[in-house]
Specification:
468 residues, Rossmann fold, Outer Surface Protein A, domain 3, 7-stranded mixed β-sheet, 3-stranded antiparallel β-sheet, globular, binds S-adenosylmethionine
């Protein structure tokens, strides 16, 4: 407090000067991480009673909704920027969360003797210097429980080359010392480039695509993502090499469907598999080259964890959700993707899951016989690999039928009170809030008798935002 040098150091921290917008990231949730670990033969800690660490937790937007939805789990977030941590502590206090703690610490100095079941470093690795990157991997190896899972996201090559041009342009043009002025200059030159490049040529198309990508993003995102003086996009094979050197092993991608080769022709699949020679890391690296991949959200485990290839039988003890809808017999749609299956059990499973959404169904309840259960697990694995079903070890407490005096998630009500356009639901997914949703959320503290036929209330229930 009284050390002027320390105050100066805090002042120049970019994350204190320009806040980075925090969100809940469903792909970092212990439930997702644990289900993937269990699928691969590990015995991860049940999410609802686990210990979770977030490296570079920012304003706590990711940990706070998890702590609210899983009161029996314990959360620790650390960051070296003071301002976002203040916001995190304020939110935890207002929501009366006793199971989450935020500490100011630099990764290089951070020590915690206790093992963590899940460790998350989102939007961190590519934006910190080499020693801090190495330290993040070291923290994961030292602090992970034997069957624990670490999540690390990072920018990847070769897709990163495309985006580097825009970073270089912004850095070349914007020289102001004041971060806000620098940001204005950078946006200015990017807008010029987007308007003037020849979009018929690959170079111009790339610049324009990057300009489109940042439209509508907050100044904090552009400043920290694009203008960071420290940034490294790296090949997946290099990331896994560093992880292995630190004693960590590749489990898979948190967005599991990202590992799918469904975008290749059958001949392409065959050739990639032949080139990969049975090495899953090489296979993933070939896929990155073919996709032009820009970003990864990789899961790592300790190198002594007894990892196996995906085992469908492990799905039998999980829960499953799917928002996919059958748009014509045997054709299921999720977003813009379609899954076709005339398999009677597959159709029956997907229809049951559609009816239960957003609730999860225990897989054992989906099959009448042991034979059906075995087939159901195999089918659900394919659905999970293709992004049409999500596997869970846990289900949050929310209601699909509102009570006469409904109660909404306190986290979502707080976001509504802050006039936010997005709020995390009980599954840790982000839901868009319009004026009507915000207005109703503010009333739903159990004192207001909402008519059960209210369409806005029904929408909140469908989005897993009501706890009573
Ligand atoms: C891009 S932000 C990501 C924040 C959050 N994880 C997210 O994805 O929204 C990176 C965060 O890492 C923190 N950070 C950067 N270097 C750090 C270090 N050496 N030790 C601890 N935190 C650091 C920053 O203060 C910032 O909050």
């Amino acid at each position: 407090m009284h050390d002027p040098q320390r105050r100066e150091a805090r002042f120049v921290n970019g994350y204190d000067a320009i806040p980075y917008p925090g969100y809940a990231f469903a792909q970092t949730h212990p439930d997702r991480l644990g289900a993937i670990a269990a699928l691969h033969g590990l015995w991860p800690s049940p999410p609802e009673s686990s210990r979770v660490l977030e490296i570079g937790c920012g304003d706590g937007s990711n940990l706070i909704p998890m702590a609210y939805a899983m009161p029996g789990a314990r959360f620790l977030g650390f960051d070296n920027a003071a301002q976002p941590l203040q916001a995190a502590r304020r939110a935890a206090q207002e929501l009366r969360l006793g199971n989450v703690e935020f500490v100011e610490a630099d990764a290089l100095q951070f020590e915690d003797a206790q093992p963590f079941d899940y460790i998350v470093a989102h939007g961190f690795y590519s934006w910190v210097p080499t020693p801090v990157q190495a330290r993040a991997l070291e923290i994961c190896r030292r602090s992970l429980a034997p069957h624990g899972v670490a999540f690390i996201s990072y920018d990847t090559l070769p897709g990163g080359y495309e985006r580097q041009v825009v970073r270089d342009l912004m850095a070349f043009h914007s020289s102001a010392a004041d971060p806000r002025q620098q940001l204005r200059e950078a946006q200015d030159v990017l807008a010029l480039a987007a308007a003037e490049v020849n979009r018929q040529r690959p170079y111009g198309a790339g610049v324009h695509a990057e300009w489109s990508r940042v439209q509508g993003r907050s100044p904090g995102f552009i400043y920290h993502d694009h203008l960071s003086t420290v940034h490294e996009a790296l090949y997946f094979s290099e990331f896994t090499r560093r992880a292995a050197a630190a004693g960590l092993r590749y489990l898979g991608e948190s967005d599991y469907a990202e590992m799918s080769d469904a975008f290749l022709s059958p001949e392409g699949v065959e050739r990639v598999n032949a080139f990969a020679q049975g090495d899953p890391i090489r296979r993933e690296q070939y896929l990155d080259f073919l996709k032009g991949r820009q970003f990864r959200q990789t899961l790592l485990v300790r190198d002594d964890a007894p990892l196996q290839t995906a085992r469908p039988e492990r799905i039998a003890d999980m829960l499953v959700t799917s928002p996919a809808r059958e748009e014509e017999p045997g054709v299921f749609r999720r977003g813009e993707s379609r899954l076709r299956s005339q398999h009677p059990l597959a159709r029956q499973l997907m229809q049951q899951l559609g009816r239960a959404w957003p609730g999860a169904v225990p897989v054992r309840e989906l099959a009448a016989t042991e034979t059906d259960l075995k087939v159901a697990c195999e089918l659900l694995l394919v659905c999970f690999q293709r992004g049409f079903a999500d596997l869970h070890l846990w289900q949050p407490s929310f209601v699909r039928q509102p009570s006469p005096r409904p109660v909404a998630s306190a986290v979502a009500r707080r976001e509504a009170a802050l006039q936010k356009k997005l709020a995390p639901n009980l599954w840790h997914s982000v839901v868009e809030l319009d004026d009507a949703a915000r207005e109703l959320l503010l009333k739903l503290d159990g004192s207001f008798g909402a008519p059960s036929a209210d369409p806005v209330l029904a929408r909140l229930a469908r989005n897993a935002l009501l706890v009573q």
